[in-house]
């Protein structure tokens, strides 16, 4: 008997401050349209020192986990390239913060922006073998390139949390996917750096080449064509990048489908445009944005392109389920984005410099204004001090 496996619930968190790209453009002496149109970004999440990938993941996961679901979690797979320790997994910190059972397997996965997709596929394979299992998959990152750098406009951050189960509410994953790996130096962050190094134009070209490669291989494996899809969801380090990917395959569709696929892409990039780059979470924020703003119906097949620099790409697909809207809290997500407060460029620059130091000294962070349920209070004796508002 074939087990239907996929995404049952999905949550998203980003901190409550943002930078307007028009303000950044003016401060950097650029035409705002270079950012708004050329890059395709309107706002950028500003990450305070009291939020890291662990706390953001906890804030996202808490939206979808009831006490009963927590008791049934078998595994946590945490995709990130912004880990807080070179040895201890972010998933272990997260499992403790959320109060998950002690017999939970907790692992951190790293391959640039691809990590959460690795987690999703490993989770799906696990549930196919263990149909009663529930797996929590996280994509959480803080995209940092540095102040006044070419990549500054593509910064951001946040976390996406997905519950993978049998008989999912949102999306049933197809078993076949296509993946491709090559040793490419388009983006990397050595252990001695807090900001990434990137060759932006080269990285875009690699991204587009990988998409063509895995899309062609997927078609060869499945005998499906573009006509079998209602939407394509892309990893979006910036929204213009996904638009370039879609345009590569649009000529394969007739004119009515080209129009519908383009409309679906616009829906999928709406929330990313307001948040910026999530690295491992970007593809799945795009998916959530499509669910929130698109005009989909159950039974439609969606295509996904995941890409992680360095480089690894994968194309996979899934069938939307009839009651998919009950798998996320649309009103909460709308309020979360709408209630954020703008910061000035000077405030953003100050916050950017306030991350925990790398010298290991004890630090008490200013947490009096922290509104998120989970936050980082500081560091004592070389250990991060995580807190939950309800327990203080």
Automatic annotation (TrEMBL):
Active site feature: 81, 113, 235
Q: What is its EC number?
A: 2.3.3.10
Q: Which UniProt keywords apply?
A: Acyltransferase, Transferase
Q: Where is the Hydroxymethylglutaryl-coenzyme A synthase N-terminal domain?
A: 4-167
Pfam entry (one): HMG_CoA_synt_C
GO molecular function annotations of the record: hydroxymethylglutaryl-CoA synthase activity
Tell me the GO BP annotations in alphabetical order: acetyl-CoA metabolic process
What Gene3D superfamilies is this protein classified in?
3.40.47.10
Where the record annotates domain Hydroxymethylglutaryl-coenzyme A synthase C-terminal, the positions are 174-250, 269-355
The cross-references to InterPro entries, in alphabetical order and at most eight, read:
HMG_CoA_synt_C_dom, HMG_CoA_synth_N, HMG_CoA_synthase_prok, Thiolase-like
* The protein's enzyme class: transferase
- The positions annotated for binding (3S)-3-hydroxy-3-methylglutaryl-CoA are 31, 145, 244, 277
- Check the record and name the NCBIfam families matching this protein: HMG-CoA-S_prok (TIGR01835)
Q: Which family does it belong to?
A: Belongs to the thiolase-like superfamily. HMG-CoA synthase family.
What's the protein name?
A: Hydroxymethylglutaryl-CoA synthase
Name the source organism: Levilactobacillus suantsaiihabitans
């Amino acid at each position: 008997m074939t087990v239907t496996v996929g995404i049952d619930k999905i949550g998203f968190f980003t901190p409550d401050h943002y930078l307007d790209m028009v303000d950044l453009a003016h401060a950097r002496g650029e035409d705002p349209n270079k950012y708004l149109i050329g890059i395709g970004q309107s706002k950028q999440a500003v990450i305070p020192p009291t939020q890291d990938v662990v706390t953001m993941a906890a804030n996202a996961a808490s939206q979808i986990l009831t006490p009963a679901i927590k008791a049934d979690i078998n595994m946590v797979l945490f995709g990130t390239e912004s880990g807080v320790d070179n040895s201890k997994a972010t998933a272990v910190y997260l499992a403790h913060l959320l109060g998950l059972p002690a017999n939970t397997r907790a692992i951190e996965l790293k391959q640039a922006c691809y990590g959460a997709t690795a987690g999703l596929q490993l989770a799906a394979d696990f549930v196919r073998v263990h149909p009663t299992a529930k797996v929590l998959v996280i994509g959480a990152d803080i995209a940092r390139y540095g102040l006044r750098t070419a990549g500054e406009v593509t910064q951001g951050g946040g976390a996406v949390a997905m519950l993978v189960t049998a008989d999912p509410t949102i999306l049933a994953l197809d078993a076949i996917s296509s993946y491709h790996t090559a040793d490419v130096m388009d983006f990397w962050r050595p252990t001695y750096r807090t900001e990434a190094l990137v060759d932006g134009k080269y990285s875009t070209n690699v991204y587009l080449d990988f998409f063509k490669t895995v899309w062609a291989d997927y078609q060869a494996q499945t005998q499906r064509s573009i006509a079998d899809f209602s939407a394509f969801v892309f990893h979006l380090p910036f929204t213009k990048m996904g638009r370039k990917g879609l345009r590569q395959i649009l000529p394969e569709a007739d004119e009515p489908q080209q129009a519908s696929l383009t409309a679906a892409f616009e829906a999928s990039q709406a929330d990313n445009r307001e948040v910026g780059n999530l690295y491992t979470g970007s593809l799945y924020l795009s998916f959530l944005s499509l669910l929130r703003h698109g005009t989909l119906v159950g039974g439609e097949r969606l295509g996904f392109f995941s890409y992680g620099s360095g480089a690894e790409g994968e194309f996979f697909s899934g069938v939307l389920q009839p009651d998919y809207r009950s798998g996320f809290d649309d009103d909460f997500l709308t309020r979360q984005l709408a209630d954020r407060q703008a910061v000035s460029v000077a405030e953003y620059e100050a916050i950017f410099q306030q991350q925990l130091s790398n010298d290991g000294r004890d630090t008490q962070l200013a947490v009096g204004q922290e509104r998120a349920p989970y936050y980082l209070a500081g560091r004592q004796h070389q250990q991060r001090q995580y807190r939950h508002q309800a327990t203080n």
